[in-house]
Write a structure and sequence with these properties.
The chain is α+β, with helices and mostly antiparallel strands. Helices cover about 35% and strands about 20% of the residues. Strand 4 and strand 5 form a beta hairpin. The longest helix is centred in the C-terminal third of the chain and has 21 residues.
Length: about 170
């Protein structure tokens, strides 16, 4: 009788199990080619207007700090910078600074946002640029929430509204 024609179910089970385990080990050991790059909340580093803008510190347990604003006049164009209240979210504080020129929103910068762990950084690397684009397009705090970043989006909207109120928009 030929060796392949013999009925050996235990041998087939062992070989199938070994192949499955080997395949799972190989699959789980795969790593991405590069780690994802974490984007910052703004595309340029925050700058302070030529007039002295008071920096607002982290809020206490009350959940916020008063917004600050500063403005500078150069010719006919009036540029104004305002910082919104610090909003305490479940994952950390969120604070937004806006720059306006002639009554139009020209820049939005997240001054504070949750970044304590890699998951916060991952979420905010895609949420903050999207919230910034929405705010600049809407020219108001009436913006859509970012899926997966609900707490950050809520804090961003509240701080943005506070900054817009401080800027007089």
């Amino acid at each position: 009788m030929h060796a392949l024609k013999k009925n050996r179910p235990l041998r087939r089970i062992v070989l199938a199990s070994a192949a499955t385990v080997s395949g799972m080990v190989l699959l789980l050991s795969l790593k991405p080619h590069t780690s994802p790059v974490l984007a910052t909340a703004d595309t340029k580093s925050p700058t302070v207007s030529s007039s002295s803008a008071p920096s607002s510190g982290s809020g206490g347990s009350s959940g916020g700090s008063s917004g600050s604003s500063s403005g500078s006049t150069s010719g006919k164009a009036v540029s104004k910078t305002a910082t919104g209240d610090t909003v305490q979210t479940r994952w950390g504080p969120v604070q937004v600074r806006v720059t306006t020129k002639n009554g139009k929103l020209t820049d939005v910068t997240a001054v504070q946002y949750p970044q304590d762990n890699p998951r916060d950084q991952e979420i905010n690397s895609y949420a903050l640029p999207q919230l910034r684009r929405e705010a600049l397009a809407a020219q108001s705090a009436d913006i859509d929430m970012v899926s997966g970043a609900t707490y950050t989006s809520t804090g961003y909207k509240q701080s943005l509204q506070s900054a817009l109120d401080s800027a007089g928009l």
